[in-house]
Specification:
The chain contains three helices and nine strands; from the N terminus they run E-E-E-E-E-E-H-E-E-E-H-H. By secondary structure, the protein is an alpha+beta fold. It has two domains: 164 residues, Immunoglobulin-like, CATH 2.60.40; 34 residues. Strand 7 and strand 8 form a beta hairpin. This is C2 domain-containing protein.
Length: 208
């Protein structure tokens, strides 16, 4: 029996076009962050980053956000440029989920405007959004040359704009997978150093 308390939102991230180029040297490496609540944006799901994809990245990746509640009305989208040290915001938008629920199929493929940090329209992102019961199979949709996405509705949320402003000033934003890998390397290095010290320090000064 379907669980109507919570549903899932499948998002197939197709492509973006006409993005700003925030890369000072070379071409930017875009990836997409998706989340449902501004209260805890770290609980996001992300695409892989596309190296040197520039202003026309193509992903064709399906992401799933679990525990979609009936009172959840907005999908938050952020397009980031992956960097070795600090990832930078390329564009962002907020998508009302009412346009998905309006369709009897609970599925909607659209081109959605995205905005730069100054809240100016800077390109579009193509997404397929599908709301389903959690015990149903996930939905994947691929765009082809015959696909005709609808013009999707977007909105600018004041709290989201504030978050983007704060995000632009941070120096430690990074792709979650890359950040986890960096933390693992740092942890391993610390263990190696500690082990080396334990082998070289006299027994009288070692911690017991």
């Amino acid at each position: 029996m379907a669980d109507n308390t919570h549903k899932a939102l499948d998002v197939t991230v197709h492509r973006a076009q006409d993005l700003d180029n925030v890369e000072k040297h070379g071409r930017q490496d875009p990836y997409v962050r998706l989340f449902l609540g501004l209260h805890d944006p770290d609980k996001c799901t992300v695409t892989t980053y596309k190296k040197n994809a520039g202003e026309l990245p193509v992903w064709e990746e399906r992401l799933t956000l679990e525990h979609l509640k009936e009172e959840t009305h907005i999908l938050y989208v952020e397009i980031m440029d992956h960097e070795k040290v600090t990832d930078r915001i390329i564009a962002f938008t907020a998508i009302p989920l009412s346009q998905v629920r309006e369709w009897t199929s609970n599925s909607f493929t659209g081109n959605f405007d995205v905005y730069n940090r100054e809240c100016e329209t800077r390109g579009t992102i193509s997404l397929t959004l599908c709301i389903r019961d959690r015990d149903e199979p996930a939905h994947t949709h691929t765009l082809d040359s015959t696909s005709r996405p609808h013009k999707g509705r977007t909105t600018l949320i004041p709290e989201h704009k504030k978050r983007i402003g704060n995000l632009a000033g941070k120096t430690h934003v990074s792709h979650p997978i890359a950040a986890a890998a960096n933390e693992a390397v740092i942890d391993l290095a610390a263990k190696v150093i500690a082990h080396s010290r334990s082998r070289t320090e006299p027994a009288s000064v070692r911690e017991i």
